[in-house]
Amino acid sequence: MLIKDMDTQAKKKVTNLSGPLMVSRGKVHRLEELPGCCAEDEDGNLLSAIFYHVRNGECEIVSLESRTMNIGAGTRLIEAVIARARAEGWARVWLITSNDNTKAVRFYQKRGFDLKAVHRDAITEARKLKPSIPLIGNDGIPIRHELELEYLL
Fold it and tell me: What SS3 class is residue 106?
């Protein structure tokens, strides 16, 4: 598995899969405009991709997309972003996930992230910026709240 900085072609592949926009904490992120890394197999096939945004010495993971689960690609990308954050002297790496995404909460907690905050009804508000956000998510759970997780450096 090869971890590398994302180029324009890889960004287009990922945004075709996940969509071009993400909303977190009321901010619209255009994935193609963000830095990121990707994991590829030996044949150059995209396995996973991560996009992040740096502001005020903090790094927000805006999107982590994996095409294949349980092969370590997502973990390797998280590790790459944390390594970059340490090298740059950033204070923390943080992210937002939705209240229905229990798999993501487990995934990030296993990798050292801690729950920082629950932003009640933030996704209800985010739908005004991105109407395609579904009302019902994983396991039939209504999607309403943003969960903020952080990794302190």
Answer: helix
